[in-house]
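Methods — Computational structure assignment.
A single polypeptide chain was analysed. Its primary sequence is given first, followed by the predicted tertiary structure written as structure tokens.
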Amino acid sequence: MPFLINAPIDCGLQPKGELIAKWGDGSGQRCRINYQLPEQAEKDAPFMRASATCRAVLDKPQIAQN
């Protein structure tokens, strides 16, 4: 899933790292984003912009107990 990161220049976000996006509590309702912000913001821009792929985070399957 494509993901666009708009980070204020002074927000404290590391230049490179990992984010988790979560929109529910179930399996498949969150994804992991490995990102790298550009070294410099566009001239006079208040935000740094980067695109990344959000990869689904799935819970481990449950094993049925007899």
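Note: The CA atoms of residues 35 and 42 lie 18 Å apart.
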